[in-house]
Write a structure and sequence with these properties.
The complex is a heterodimer. By secondary structure, chain A is mostly helical. In chain A, 71% of the residues lie in helices and 6% in strands. In chain A, strand 3 (165-168) and strand 4 (173-176) form a beta hairpin. In chain A, helix 3 (51-75) crosses helix 10. The two termini of chain A are 25 Å apart. Chain B is of the alpha+beta class. Chain B is 33% helix and 36% strand. Chain B has six helices and 13 strands. Chain B has helices spanning 2-21, 114-120, 124-130, 144-158, 218-229, 231-253; strands spanning 30-32, 36-39, 46-53, 60-67, 73-81, 84-94, 100-104, 132-137, 162-165, 170-172, 176-183, 190-200, 203-216. In chain B, the strands form three sheets. In chain B, strands 2-13-12-4-7-9 form a six-stranded mixed sheet. A four-stranded antiparallel sheet of chain B has the order 1-3-11-10, with helices on one face. In chain B, helix 5 packs across helix 6 (231-253). The longest helix of chain B is centred in the C-terminal third of the chain and has 23 residues, at 231-253. Chain B is flat and about 70 Å long. The chains are: A mainly alpha, B alpha+beta. Chains A and B meet through strand 1, helix 1, helix 3, helix 9 and helix 10 of A and strand 5, strand 6, helix 4, helix 5 and helix 6 of B. Strand 5 of chain A pairs antiparallel with strand 5 of chain B, so a sheet runs across the interface.
Chain lengths: 310, 258
């Protein structure tokens, strides 16, 4: 009755299920102020969307979801264009390589395994760090180096020794372009593989490692996400034929509405409470995926990707 | 309602064709409620009714639905690598139909002989006998064919692409049979053959074939074809639409979905 046919996934699915998942992810991203891409791909896989279609369509959805935020931050002058472009160069390189790696993994029939494994590592690392940190904050222990601008002195001394030094006016930094490019490439690679924007890695790295001011980090991240995920979408469509635009747009509808509610609720909760909640969700997802990898699968036979859906 | 229309259709068919061809050639007349299934935005699988005449009141009916397009497929076999389950072997499988469904008017064992089953390929065993399997990657093991066939069958049955259902055909007064096949949402584009057989005393006394075509049409069809044949155009379109939608959302909510 309320089903919609997804042309690239090649399957019919209840539209409210998609809106609900999009809404949930949007709600969480509104609540926590991070993109929800890292929850979206695993949830899509859980409801039976082929993993490669899930990741590629999520990238497509993120282009849309990040656009308005990026525009707003650009208008407010929160984007360090020079830094953003260098990260973006890395992002495009990493994303392009990532899409080719996706192709090889699909031909091997091990894309699903690789995605889940990478998710377990990323979610475990990020969720674990967040959990420990917010527990500490709740106990009101002072956290070292958290508020300091300019990153930790160890990192800035190291970057000072690297070549290709540049001045970033907006961030008030004098640092080498090599690290921003590398982190851009890493996140771009993960964006292609996991269907995420990568804000949960990029923003903390910008603040704590590179030493950018928080607002500029968030604005610059959104700016680069739009173009990095646009590149990934394009490459996935061209190389793997896995972008389901119908799926992406339905998810966007859900996440847009969900984000409005999330933003409202976030004003009620305390920062540490929000962070500990987020870390619990991230860790729960991590354990679910880890479980998938360890348990004997229901069917020992699986598809090797041809074109599109399967 | 549907059933009444159906019966009227069949009666008209029988009268017309029976009169036109004479009873000799018209021993079994079959038809379906639809010849073409159009896959568009709202497609969630579709039931097509099939009906036909029975030449002999004592005959039993068996109907096989099978896809015409049966491309070679690649499957993996999962194995445990250290701690984790992942694909360890890869096979190319040939000669397997994309869709395979059987309906009958009685339990199969009551009217089919082993010879008939073999000749008309009326059970999974005959499919397995026809299956060509070739190892592409990994180490061979003696149970490969068995395990791969079982796993393949499970995937197909889970997607409602393979099914053997006894007693699914309804017979009216020994003259008319009627049933429906569900073409699930995963049905691929192409032609599907519906073979109907009337069987008496272990012999096929009459048979008839129908064709149903599945085609992706409209927006879904266009998106699917563009994505597969013109990835660059599709990719650019996906990005432009996403940017447009993002800006629109930003206008409406002044915050966006991120």
């Amino acid at each position: 009755m309320f089903n919609i046919f997804l042309p690239i996934a090649g399957m019919s699915i209840n539209v409210f299920l998609l809106l609900g998942i999009g809404g949930l992810v949007g709600f969480l991203s509104g609540l926590f102020g991070v993109g929800g891409g890292f929850l979206l791909t695993p949830l899509m896989m859980m409801i039976g969307i082929p993993p490669a279609v899930a990741a590629a369509s999520d990238s497509n959805q993120i282009v849309a979801a990040a656009t308005s935020g990026a525009m707003a931050h650009t208008r407010l002058g929160n984007v360090d264009m020079k830094m953003g472009l260098i990260i973006l160069l890395g992002g495009i390189a990493g994303g392009t390589i990532g899409v080719q790696v996706v192709k090889v993994l699909r031909q091997m029939g091990n894309f699903e395994f690789a995605v889940k494994a990478v998710y377990v590592l990323m979610l475990g690392g990020v969720g674990g760090a967040m959990f420990v940190e917010s527990l500490r904050a709740l106990r009101k222990e002072p956290v070292q180096g958290q508020e300091g601008m300019g990153g930790s002195p160890k990192f800035s001394r190291f970057f000072n020794r690297l070549p290709l030094k540049m001045h970033f006016k907006k961030s008030g930094l004098n640092t080498s372009a090599i690290f921003p490019f590398s982190i851009g490439a890493t996140v771009g690679f993960l964006a292609a593989l996991m269907g995420v924007g990568g804000g949960f890695i990029m923003v903390p790295t910008m603040i704590y490692v590179i030493g950018m001011p928080t607002v500029v980090a968030i604005g610059t991240d959104l700016f680069q996400i739009v173009f990095t995920t646009a590149n990934v979408t394009l490459q996935q469509a061209f190389t793997n034929h896995t972008v389901d635009i119908v799926l992406a747009m339905v998810l966007l509808c859900g996440s847009t509405i969900g984000a409005q509610f999330g933003a409202k609720v976030s004003r009620v909760l305390r920062g540490e409470q929000i962070r500990i909640l987020l870390s619990v969700i991230v860790l729960a997802m991590m354990f679910k995926l880890l479980f998938d990898l360890l348990m004997t699968p229901e069917n020992l036979v699986g598809w090797v990707a041809a074109k599109g859906g399967h | 309602m549907k059933r009444t229309i159906l019966v009227i259709c069949v009666v008209i068919c029988v009268l017309n064709i029976g009169a036109a061809l004479g009873s000799e050639d018209a021993d079994m007349v079959t038809d379906r409620t639809k010849q073409k299934i159009e896959v568009d935005t709202r497609f969630a699988g579709e039931r097509i009714y099939f009906f036909g005449t029975i030449p002999d009141p004592e005959a039993d009916i068996i109907v096989k639905l099978i896809s015409k397009h049966n491309d070679p497929i690649k499957l993996t076999r999962k194995g445990k690598a250290v701690l984790f389950w992942m694909s360890t072997k890869q096979f190319e499988i040939r000669n397997m139909p994309y869709i395979y469904k059987i309906h009958s008017s009685k339990p199969l064992g009551e009217f089919l002989t082993p010879e008939l089953v073999k000749e008309y390929k009326l059970d999974y065993e005959t499919l397995k006998d026809d299956m060509e399997i070739r190892l592409i990657k990994g180490e061979p093991s003696p149970d490969d064919k068995e395990v791969m066939f079982e796993g393949y069958l499970k995937m197909k049955e889970d997607e409602n692409l393979y099914r053997i259902a006894e007693n699914r055909i309804r017979i009216t007064k020994g003259r008319l049979f009627e049933h429906y096949f569900t073409f699930p949402d995963k049905a691929k584009e192409g032609d599907y053959v519906i073979e109907s057989y009337a069987i008496k005393d272990g012999q096929v006394i009459a048979e008839s074939n129908d064709i149903v075509e599945v085609k992706k049409v409209g927006l879904m069809g266009w998106l699917y074809r563009t994505s597969q044949n013109n990835g660059i155009l599709y990719g650019i379109m996906a990005v432009v639409i996403a940017l447009g939608a993002g800006l629109l959302v930003g206008r409406i909510f002044k915050g966006g979905g991120h």
